[in-house]
Amino acid sequence: MRFLNIVFLGLLLLLAACAQKPLQPPSQGFAAQGRVNIRSQTEANTAMFDWLATPERDVLSLSSPLGNTLAELSILYQQGEIVSATLKHGQTTEIAPDPESLLQNLAGLTLPVSGMRWWLRGLPDPRMPFTRTDDSFSQSGWLVTATDFRDGTLPYKIELTRDDLRIRVMISEWSAAVP
Length: 179
Hints:
By secondary structure, the protein is mainly beta. It has one domain: Clam (outer membrane lipoprotein receptor (LolB), chain A). Helices cover about 15% and strands about 45% of the residues. It has helices at about 1-15, 100-105, 115-120; strands spanning about 30-40, 45-55, 55-65, 70-80, 80-90, 90-95, 130, 135-140, 140-145, 155-160, 165-175. It has an 11-stranded antiparallel beta sheet with strand order 6-5-4-3-2-1-11-10-9-8-7. Mean pLDDT is about 80; it is low at about 15-25. This is Outer-membrane lipoprotein LolB.
């Protein structure tokens, strides 16, 4: 159970960097809502998420399926580069120079959190090497598959797999950010 809780916290951080097409973060920002499911060979967890992104900040809130807030992650950017990450969970607030450091310090996990800004759009992070297959790509040890492009530009289903871990993100709504 502890492993999956740590992985779930990792997913919170992993989700923290998503956006929409084209190949650069949107100048006006975006908002996305949906749910995420994390499965290992022995456990599964589901959470709802709300995400507001602007060029200067991402704010990701995770809640239980019943609506109770689990955590909130904020990532600050300067000129497109991450400068700090803050995670609030319960009465605790943790701060690190980037979401990967925050995850490493809290859970001992190393996940490519920053790449998610691109992955949820079905795109590889252009700053990192990747390998493309027919309808997916591999980057940083993860296989990323985006599907259900119902509006023609943004995926509504994203699956990340690595070893025995599978993360499914289902977007229910993409919209413009309202700062």
